From TrEMBL:
Highest classification ranks of the organism: Eukaryota, Fungi, Dikarya, Ascomycota, Pezizomycotina
GO molecular function: alpha,alpha-trehalase activity
The protein's name: Trehalase
Entry EC number(s): 3.2.1.28
Claim: Signal is one of the keywords in the record: yes
Pfam families hit by this protein: Trehalase
Length: 659
């Protein structure tokens, strides 16, 4: 029988229930009580009328009139609501622009000092990275409050509202539709800001302190700084942000304020996202999963969720065929809404990892998200992060010392050891030499998925007919965070063997490593290559010690693979940037590029090409982009001497494949 030890009283008193951040009214469970931004008829009717292409736009609009006047004006609109002149006039008269609660921080007040650039051998990459660094000021914001509030008579008034959760310090946004700070994005943003130095060292600390404020207020870090995110979090990386800051700056003064708050967040996950898992040998383990209390469409994706849950037929975009469906009953709809929100909490919204029937998505013949089973998946990546948090909290106690510090450090170390043991027992598959998510529905590892056209030999071998072995960078989080057992993570031969599947992916296509090896049309599946996943794969390799010496062939193979993975990501980012107008003193703009274009950094890239942005999912590919910048800057710092000037081949201007 394996379970976590009871925490000492000093920590246990921090426990609480997540319901404090929820709005419950009869059968409705929503993120907050706002009749505009979280629940109710105004939200439902306006979103279903689709006045904006993106559902998120409406819930990001602050009001310019008091809430009572907005509600009264809505009640006077002709019903049923439709996207007509009357609705557009109402929106223009009673709401400000999305994001107008924020203002850019003046560029002349922001300095950079990226000294690591001196160690980047390629002049082209050095200049490219410097241009990426110079994107940070364009993404830096401060909260200034809603626009001027006026009454119907034209005078100043109070009572205007906004969905933005006020923040006391400057921060960096991801870019595009993501106008607010997001939780897990910020880890990789901070990795880039710390290396940018200058003003951005303080801004990295500001981001951390803003999140600490949110935990102090709500008990957890919301998905993003909006009221409609108050029922869910994201992968809990705040402890790792603090660790990265302390390691990079050697400034431990933040720990006195941070440690109690980080423990409070940890208890949120242990109180509200813990599940008991029984294996085939009848052993019981405690691990964590994503499980949001919610039975409504997500406000920022209201129409998309509503259509998924309520349409009785499915239109397949790839073929134009309309497939008959089935009507969901109320219980099934509510469960679907909970799984949609839980998938969003995972950060992987959405992926075949969370689907009961991934073939629906792969074949595009039914609502792919109707088979979401997020709450019943125990993910490798989430539990790896929580392992890292337990180790980090133990280390912080050892750093600060004082009464009970030794006991608390030992407690967290024991919890981490228990988690690593549980993950090895449930998730590690010796035959495949890989970790796999645990599926509570089948009470087994999620090893196989439908066969894909570009499956590698290793993915087909030993798989049942018509299936392949799942591949995902999520399986390598234990190497990044150290959750893998010592015999595995400290043995270069074993790590190299586990990473053979990653090396094989480099032979499949010219781009970076995809989120999975199954094409579904969902954005966290093949062919999309996400910057944070490249970081995780690479850092997992870099963590491997030279146990048998630096001349050990397995150790050298690991180092070479890390460089190759970094080169793939940098090449994808650079060549896509080049094709969208980017240039350096050594490489002028491509012929045919608009002279005003300066190159674009995207949220995600495409495995199939070195100059292709990613696609799929619920929204258009986003430019900016916070975590992409951060990972690129990190890679340039780590591998500056090894990275070569990317060879983009015969690309043309604006040759972007949004597949």
């Amino acid at each position: 029988m394996h379970s976590y030890h009871s925490l000492p009283l000093a920590l246990a008193v921090l426990s609480f229930k997540s319901a404090c951040a929820l709005y419950t009214n009869g059968s409705v469970i929503a993120p907050c009580s706002s009749p505009l931004y979280c629940q109710g008829e105004i939200l439902r009717q306006i979103e279903l009328a689709q006045p904006y292409e993106d559902s998120k736009t409406f819930v990001d609009l602050p009001t310019t009139r008091p809430l009572e006047e907005v509600i009264e004006a809505f009640n006077n609109l002709t019903k049923p609501i439709s996207n007509n002149t009357e609705l557009q006039t109402f929106l223009e008269d009673y709401f400000g622009e999305a994001g107008s609660e924020l203002e850019p921080v003046p560029n002349d007040s922001l300095s950079t000092d990226p000294t690591f650039l001196n160690n980047v051998s390629s002049q082209v990459l050095r200049n490219f990275t410097d241009q990426v660094i110079n994107i940070w000021p364009d993404l830096t914001r401060s909260y200034v409050g809603p626009p001027r509030c006026e009454s119907a008579s034209g005078g100043n008034a109070s009572g205007c509202v906004s969905s933005f959760i006020p923040l006391n310090r400057t921060f960096v946004v991801a870019g595009g539709r993501f106008r607010e700070p997001y939780y897990w994005d910020s880890y990789w943003i901070i990795e880039g800001l710390l290396r940018t130095e200058g003003s951005f060292t303080e801004i990295a600390l500001n981001i951390i302190e803003n999140f600490l404020d949110l935990v102090d207020r709500f008990g957890f870090v919301p998905n993003g700084a909006r009221q409609y995110y108050l029922n869910r979090s994201q992968p809990p990386l705040l402890s790792q942000m603090v660790r990265a800051y302390v390691e990079y700056t050697n400034d431990t003064s933040i720990l006195e304020r941070a440690l109690p708050t980080l423990e409070k967040e940890y208890m949120f996950w242990m109180e509200n996202r813990t599940v008991s898992v029984r294996d085939e040998m009848n052993q019981t383990y405690m691990l964590n999963h994503y499980a949001v209390l919610n039975n409504q469409p997500r406000p920022e994706s209201f129409r998309e969720d509503y259509v998924t849950a309520n349409n009785e037929s499915y239109y397949a975009p790839t073929t134009g065929i309309i497939y008959p469906g089935q009507d969901l009953n109320e219980t099934e709809r509510e469960e679907l809404y909970a799984n949609l929100a839980s998938g969003a909490e995972s950060g992987w919204d959405y992926t075949s990892r969370w689907l009961k029937n991934p073939s629906d998505a792969a074949n595009d013949n039914y609502f792919p998200l109707r088979s979401l089973n997020t709450k019943n998946i125990v993910p490798v990546d989430l539990n790896s992060i929580l392992y890292a948090n337990e180790i980090t909290l133990a280390n912080f106690y050892e750093t600060i010392g004082g009464d009970d510090s030794e006991a608390m450090a030992e407690e967290y170390q024991q919890r981490a050891a228990n988690r690593s043991e549980a993950m090895a027992a449930l998730m590690w598959d010796e035959e495949q030499f890989a970790y796999f998510d645990w599926n509570l529905t089948s009470n087994s590892r999620h090893i196989y998925e439908p066969l894909d056209s570009d499956a590698t030999t290793s993915q087909i071998d030993d798989a049942p007919e018509g299936q392949q072995v799942l591949f995902s960078p999520a399986q390598y989080y234990p190497f990044w965070t150290g959750a893998a057992p010592t015999w595995l993570k400290n043995n270069p031969y074993a790590v190299s063997r586990a990473y053979d599947r990653v090396a094989a992916q480099l032979e499949v296509a010219p781009g970076a490593i995809p989120a999975t090896n199954l094409v579904t049309g969902e954005q966290w599946d093949e062919p999309n290559a996400w910057p944070p996943l490249q970081y995780i794969l690479i850092q997992g390799l870099l963590n491997t010690p030279a146990t048998f010496g630096t001349e050990d062939p397995s150790y050298q193979s690991i180092q070479n693979l890390a460089i190759n993975l970094a080169q793939r990501y940098v090449t994808s980012a650079f060549c896509t940037w080049r094709s969208t107008g980017g240039s350096t003193p050594q490489l002028p703009q491509l012929a045919g590029a608009d002279s005003e274009d300066v190159g674009t950094i995207f949220e995600k890239y495409n495995q199939s090409s070195i100059n292709a942005a990613g696609g799929g999912g619920e929204y258009a590919v986003v430019e900016g982009f916070g975590w992409s910048n951060g990972v690129l800057i990190w890679a340039a710092d780590k591998f500056g001497r090894e990275l070569k000037t990317p060879m983009c081949g015969n690309i043309t201007a604006a040759d972007i494949a949004d597949e």
